[in-house]
Write the structure tokens for this entry.
Amino acid sequence: MQQRLGGKVAVVTGGNTGIGRAVSLAFAHEGASVVVAWHDRETAAESLVAEISQSGQHAIMIEVDVRDEMSVEQMVARVLEREGGLDILVNNAGVQRAQPITETSVADWDWMMGVHLRGAFLCARAVVPHMLKVGGGRIINVCSQLGYIGREGYTAYSAAKGGLIAFTRALAKELAPHGVGVNGVAPGLVDTGFDPLSEKVKRQHADSLPLKRIGTPEDMTSAFVFLASDEGAYYCGQLLHPNGGEIMP
């Protein structure tokens, strides 16, 4: 069976855990060389790179703080130097914290915007010159259904993801004429193992869904592979919604 991403170099920010880890594995399975861009949980990054390497595919890990301009620029420079190219960027790095707005400090707000919005901006800005030079590429932003519907206690997170949706659409219009595809994936609640929600709340949420279960990281990967591959070439500024039927935009 032909690998859909054979010969491609993919950078996945936050690629060592949760959805990012599953996407990194799926990309490697489809033949891509994977750059696991990580900021914490170094051991998880090492384990993932070893797993991909043992499967016969190529992977490296690079530490990056997506909020920091120099850190992002250095990461991209290292990728281009070591891998000789960069075809796919997945802006997956993210953080989440439930807080009433009265308990949300300016630092909390800036942290949320910094990782989700500033991070996606800095990473995209850093890779676009190379993609324009070679005449193509893919940028996939990890958004959220909360960017559409919002949720009490998640004002900062919802605002950041709503901004990321708008960023995705605007960047798609800007880069499409140059052969660079920009799209997003907006997951519903996914059981990554890092979510602070109790098992009771997760069960209640699952019961409210048409599919009657919470998503897994592996449920998300087909959307990313599709958008990164030639099969997604005619998608522009679109969001795919693996959410179990919670919202149907």
User: Anything to note?
Assistant: The domain at 9-240 is CATH 3.40.50.720 (Rossmann fold). The two ends are 34 Å apart (CA to CA). Helices lie at 18-29, 42-54, 69-83, 106-134, 146-149, 155-175, 199-208, 217-228. The first helix runs from residue 18 to 29.
